[in-house]
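INFO batch 0412 | record 1 of 1 | parsing
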Amino acid sequence: MLGIKQDFLAFELGEEWNQQKISLLEQKEKIDSHILEQVSAVLKIPADAIRNFDEEKAVNIIANTFQDFHDFHDQSSVMSNLPTFNINPVEKWIEALEENRRLNAELLKAKDETIRVLEKLIPH
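INFO prediction complete | emitting tokens
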């Protein structure tokens, strides 16, 4: 429902994970608590929300939200004159994660360089 690919989730969970293992995990009726906590952290969703997930309710909420928006859009002349934007929040979230990773890598590189410079300045 979030549009997150199994490969991405596997990558975020660590080296011992892969797409096939995520697929098997999705098919389980019950997931070990520590794995569920890891998955919930990656997805930024509370573990209880996953434990108590009801697909039918979620689909109904999404459908009703879309219908409410559609009804409002039809009734509002102001809305009909506004441009339409196609923004995928999950895509933006993934882009932000990738930027965060890049920045962390730059910070680590700068830290390592600072340590090298300091080691040269400090007599052994």
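INFO post-check: The two ends are 57 Å apart (CA to CA).
INFO record closed
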